């Protein structure tokens, strides 16, 4: 079976429970958004999947094979995050050559081309790069490594608006030409909303939502009206509908609903779409 299966993963650090019984599947050739606030468990999950940390419970398999201490499975995955795994005195151009040694599919010519596009000086030492250019360096590695599963942990950290837009455009371009599984872990929802196909929302180590972006948005909405009208409507909602938040201004009230059936509203109420960022904020602030 193609894909990465995460089964019943739990992880704690002393008194902190980072992940609680997480079960997920990352299917082949899809773009996922792993969305959560700072400290939600995103980085811990990606580190466990890529075998940089070990779970207290559960397991991970890659294409049906357990990944723990399995070099063949690990070579199919590539994770970028804030951690620099290269000697800080190493130059960027030399890091590209070293990457080719560990990942034979690494496209050094593409990495050099992207370096020009991002205006990354490949003669600089990695330690001398600014925060933004360290992110760019890592993103170039990820966009050139050519493995089936690539994990981007906060990939636009320190990037200006132009470079963030360039990164997302290049990611989509690469995916369109040679589909692979990309997992973008971020708390910056608005920028990835139109890039990702699948949404995974994590809060305090637990998965709140795991479904396609289109389905989660199609079945979520804002209902607005007077306080009494809205409260009456909410009381009549079916059990599958979940009110995830509300706002009150004067005598008017808005509620945010997941699982709305789209039935005709009583007169005086208004239904409007809810974007992914607003949905995320309401879900993770509860």
UniProtKB/TrEMBL annotation:
The keyword Nucleotide-binding applies. SMART domains: AAA (SM00382). InterPro entries: AAA+_ATPase (IPR003593), ABC_transporter-like_ATP-bd (IPR003439), P-loop_NTPase (IPR027417). The keyword Nucleotide-binding applies. Keywords: ATP-binding, Nucleotide-binding. Residues 4-229 form the ABC transporter domain. One of its GO terms (molecular function) is ATP binding. CDD domains: ABC_DR_subfamily_A. This is ABC transporter ATP-binding protein. It comes from Claveliimonas monacensis.
